[in-house]
What does this fold into?
Amino acid sequence: MLDVSNLKSSVTILAIESSCDETAAAVCRDGKILSNIIATQKIHEQYGGVVPELASRAHMENIVPVVDAALKKASCSMNEVDGIAFTQAPGLIGALLVGAQFAKSLAIALDKPLIAVHHMQAHVLANLIGDDIPQFPFLCLTVSGGHTQIVQCTSPTQMKVIGETIDDAAGEAFDKTAKLLGLPYPGGPLIDKYAQQGQAIYSFPEPRIEGLNFSFSGLKTAILYFLGNAGTANVYKQELTVTTEQRQKFIEENLADICASVQDRIVSILINKLKKAVFQTGIINVCIAGGVSANSGLRKALLKEGLHSGWKTFIPAFEYCTDNAAMIAITAYYKFLENQFSTIDVVPSAKASF
Ligand code: KG4
Ligand code: ZN
It folds into this structure.
């Protein structure tokens, strides 16, 4: 367990997350989450992906009611807040700007410190929410719509990326597969749902990438040709031999098994790299985080590998896997304790590594 005995108590953080298509606010006191409110923007479903301009507009509409709801649920007044946190990077720049400007305005009006949080660090620290939390050092596989990283974490404010994707993220692999199957955005949760009704009877190639990095773009191409050949022997030939109707019929009749097979391959790619990272670092506290950590196949595979290899495994509660402000709040809490505040001229950034 993390030793919190020497940490300052009674620190209340109000946090805002607006990096993509969820407008979220949370209140955290002394490392405990008192509220976690999320408004999911449904408008993007009809476009098959997030439309940046629509996301910014929806954030502007949602942010006041969402922050109000978070304070109310926490039974917390504005005056009780000690610090205002927001997601600074990475994300859609217009979306980030809405949260950043709102947080800055509150910080000025309330004369409270401002805490800028890196979204991917926050995903990792979602593992510090709750009672069963990992000891340092730990490894975290962060798998989201835009990122796939293995992070080595030595303290709440010290972490480094030791492996990452060289092309698509794991979430993108799920979402792009879903699109090929004609499923709506975001397709990850739907593939997960159908996979639970099927068997992994189809085999997809595992990319040969050295070290701890990942690659998912080849898998996407393999799935494209697999479907374009209706699962026949031509699977890896880069030509489409069946008609659109035959392809559609194949998908309809085999949807659950296709989803189970794709999910199985994505999960095995992720777990194999984690095994390598544990071997290289000797760290056996292993966490997962990010939207794809909500995947039932990945959660099961991590627990199984943990039991088999003697790892201590940690998985955030579902509500802290996909984008949320509780993870921003917990990260800001630890930054607050180390006086890591931002000046009012801090700017959001669409891309930022750590
Ligand atoms: O972390 P997140 O909410 O947002 C980003 O920071 O990107 O991750 C979103 C990603 C999407 O690609 C979504 O399809 C995927 O997480 N996702 C899932 C599941 N739930 C969300 N992928 C597979 N299985 C799930 N159950
Ligand atoms: Zn995220």
Residues 1-6 have pLDDT under 50 and may be disordered. The CA atoms of residues 19 and 96 lie 5 Å apart. The first strand starts at residue 12 and ends at 17.
